[in-house]
Amino acid sequence: MKRAATYARYSSDLQDDRSIADQNRLNDQIAVRYGVTIVRRFEDREISAWSLHTRRGFQAMMRAAKASEFEFIIIEDVDRAFRSQADYHTTRRQLNFISIKIIANTGIVSGLEGSVRAMIAEHQLEKMAGHIHRTMSGIAAEGRHCGGRAYGYRAIPGRAGHLEIVPEEAGIIRRIFDEYVAGDTPTTIALRLNAERVTPPRGSFWRPSALLGSKARGHGIPRRRKSNSPSKEC
User: Fold this and answer.
1) What is the model's pTM?
2) Does domain 3-125 have CATH number 3.40.50.1390?
3) Mind listing the pLDDT tens digit for each residue in 199-234?
4) Could you write out the three-class secondary structure of 180-218?
5) How far is Cα 161 from Cα 154, in angstroms, rounded to an integer?
6) For the chain, domain boundaries
């Protein structure tokens, strides 16, 4: 029996689980075409293919591959798995060493074809990033919010890019600043908020990194610059 694993991924919260189902349906057809039996399925939801390290489904698939659980990996297209030439070549070398082939809708992916497709996918991603940055810059220049969850604020219905303050969350932000200025560390503050079951910006608990953030990128609640309007910063 020729064993295969399937890998499916979609990158945006604007898509939905049907994207995974559609990919798996096509992967099933590919398996029938090449006479292989699917023994494992792997997936990554709402995550970019820009980096392999943040994709748990892909990493689990590679561990299973090294454990010789299958001989083929089926994907809809190369860009579902790779949007970086470096990632493609690194993975390809690992799979070649353990004699695992990649099959896409176009057929068994050769080294040259995969390299070219990964190069095209990387170029498209870089081009897309440029377009997004230009759009976001225009939105910021208009004094509007660029998107994403901004703790302490909520979107104003009918006014794209404009936010209003959420009083309850604003109180938590003031408290974080007061405790930080008083000398408490981000870890201490986060532990205290979790102990009091204060709802975090995302996830199920407060993380010290959400408060500390990055000095270089200006992330983290205590690092935020003062603004007269919540719409002034992205």
Assistant:
1) 0.54
2) yes
3) 888 777 888 877 776 666 556 676 665 544 444 443
4) HHCCCCHHHHHHHHHHCCCCCCCCCCCCHHHHHCCCCCC
5) 10
6) 3-125, 145-232
